[in-house]
Amino acid sequence: MTDRTVDLGQLNQLLWRYRPLLERFEFLLEVQLMVTASGRQEWQRHMADLFAETADALNTLDLQREVILGIGPSGPISLLELAADAPDPWGEILTEQQVELDAAVSRVTELRQRNTAALAEGSAGINQLIDALVESSGQFQSRGAGPAYGQDGRLTQSSSTAVLFDGRA
């Protein structure tokens, strides 16, 4: 620990501000799962903006925490190190804060992994759809005797019959 005194009340207030931001991150990951599952990709940009806003707020709190805690000889002081040396009731309060923050981070990590898998599945599905469309468009072209219009924009004479999407003439 450092030689300077840490304001435990100020630190506790800061830690209480972390929790709703982590819950918001959790909420956003849940919403992103629903958006991804619904196929509404146009909302992904808005999701990215909300994630960035929340991450910025968390980064600001991280800087404030570092100012409050200071840096020890081996780097930033952990809450558990601080709790071990803190007077009553702060040791118990800081330990509980660490437990709650660890649980929130675990939930966010699990949701992030689920989101990564869902986005990968969505990407694979989109690639399969594109492959199918390219393959089927090749089938349409092979049935015809050439383009319907010439390079001058005029209708060309074609001996082929029209083909509907389901293959019927």
Q: What is the global morphology?
A: elongated
Strands ordered across the widest β-sheet: 1-2
Uncertain segments: 139-145
Total E-strand runs: 2
Structural class of the secondary elements? mainly alpha
Overview of this protein structure:
The protein has helices spanning about 10-40, 45-70, 80-85, 90-145, and strands at about 70, 75. With about 170 residues, the chain is mostly helical. Strands 1-2 form a two-stranded antiparallel sheet. A hairpin with a 2-residue loop joins strand 1 and strand 2. The longest helix is centred in the C-terminal third of the chain and has 54 residues, at about 90-145. The chain is elongated.
Brief descriptors of the model:
mainly alpha, 169 residues, two-stranded antiparallel sheet
What is shown here, in short?
The protein is mostly helical and 169 residues long.
Please write out the topology:
Layout: H1 8-38, H2 44-69, E1 71-72, E2 75-76, H3 79-85, H4 90-143
Helix pairs in contact: 1-2, 1-4, 3-4
